[in-house]
Design a protein that fits this description.
By secondary structure, the chain is an all-alpha fold. It has twelve helices and no strands.
Amino acid sequence: MKISIIVSLFLMFAIDLVAFDGLKNQNEFDKAYEYYNKGKFKEAHDIWSKLCDNKDAQSCTNLGFIFDNDDLGYKKDEKKAMSLYKKACDLNDTLGCKNLAISQYKGGKSSKDDLAQALKNFEKACELGDGYSCTSAGFQYENAQGVTQSLNKAYEYYEKGCKLLNAMGCTNVGGMYANGFSVKRDFTKAIEYFKKGCELGHKQGCKYEKELSGDDFLKNHIKNRRDKWIE
């Protein structure tokens, strides 16, 4: 039986919903967000630009998001977007670090240096509490992307992602137990994590939980213990 348990990264940028510092900033930030939701992107841009100049990290992230898209009133400019994400990340904005890492990962699939920078920023976003980034860091360690492969680090980050309620992180912890990667093979724990991934909305987790929980699984698996749960 061959089942792929490590899934590819789902790369999606995010926008911040709250300002970083002060009631005045929050009021201005909220006004910009209202403009953004109404499709008044220039007005949102102008407010976030002013707040970003005053080191409001979340405004820098949202300004970067505007330039990371070609349908938000401005010409897409990935270089400018990354510069704004970096400024936000340097100011410890979680989504700024996450979006910067995603940009670096997307642009660095053939560049070890870019992938290494992506990992660095995924790790920082993870430490700041973003479960998706924890799982993404684990994926890079699992697959030796910009870093020497480390199944121990992969497990560590997948576990962190799962604790932060990232569904893919839970599914991948289940995969580590199913394969015996970095941990002793344990199908009971694998099912537990696949189930949690499923409950959090990851379809692969549902699929693997069902397959491991089948009546004939253990009997059939014992006949061929060398099978790996990965393609």
